[in-house]
Specification:
16-stranded antiparallel barrel, globular, 255 residues, mainly beta, 53% strand
Length: 255
């Protein structure tokens, strides 16, 4: 769950001025780049960046780059995610991976998505194989995620503002194996202004606010956030009471 949490929070931003689309409305604030840095237990200085491309308020593509891994150099990768649209919905996505940035160890995957009449994701597939199905309850604020075997794997709960407040996981016997609880600020989430989102994310909605703490069992993560004049995060320091390293994040925008 902690890895999932990190993955979910990492999605938050990216793309510098060289990759931003000129069609963006100057009055619309878009996160263009996000950088994460931390030191591993063996002293590696890790840097991860996300750089995003837009067309207006639509997220077209983004690049994830990881560097600094010495013990396992295969973690030094570049991934490019490209959204493909039909009727303003991301119906498929290509994910290409280059290990070592040399172009020799390269892979590509195709994901496909289906939606209900409200534009909510109902199915996720990869290379033609069904992976997950999504059921929406309680006016869409409670979401069941079911795998291709029909097994319930998690329930996601959102508040009335569509900030995610809880993930409850389930084991192979259908029994709860614990929850992660989230709290939020009242400021602007970096992707608040985009009209489409990263459909592989476990966040089913574009939430308006930022997660400032999460708790899973006895492990608590806290984010100390500095905001700009428009109440968007520009730096985050994430601390915890577990064995995970302290992580720092910097965020850049198009304004």
């Amino acid at each position: 769950k902690l890895l999932l949490l990190s993955a979910l929070l990492i999605f938050a931003c990216s793309s510098d001025d060289s990759t931003s689309d000129d069609s963006n409305d100057e009055n619309v604030i878009l996160c263009t780049k996000r950088t994460q840095q931390y030191e591993t237990n063996n002293g590696e200085q890790i840097t991860k960046t996300y750089e995003y491309n837009y067309a207006g308020n639509q997220l077209l593509s983004w690049t994830y780059t990881a560097s600094g891994f010495a013990e396992n150099s295969n973690l030094n990768i570049t991934k490019t995610y490209t959204n493909l649209y039909e009727n303003n919905l991301v119906t498929s996505m290509t994910v290409t991976t280059d290990i070592g940035n040399d172009g020799y160890d390269f892979s590509s995957q195709l994901y496909e998505f289906e939606y209900d009449n409200l534009g909510r994701k109902t199915k996720q597939s990869m290379e033609g194989i069904d992976l997950y199905f999504y059921n929406y309850l309680n006016n869409g604020l409670t979401i069941q995620i079911i795998n291709s075997n029909g097994q319930l794997i998690s329930i996601h709960t959102y508040d009335s503002n569509k900030n995610r407040v809880e993930i409850e996981g389930f084991d192979s016997n259908g029994l709860s194996n614990g929850s992660t609880i989230y709290t939020h600020d009242d400021k602007n989430m970096p992707f608040k202004n985009i009209t489409t989102w990263y459909p592989l994310s476990s966040y089913l909605y574009i939430s308006p606010n930022n997660t400032i703490s999460s708790q899973s069992n006895n492990c608590i993560y806290n984010d100390d956030i500095i905001y700009d004049d428009n109440d968007y995060p520009v730096s985050i320091i994430r601390t915890n009471n577990c064995d995970s390293p302290i992580r720092t994040y910097t965020l850049e925008y198009n304004n």
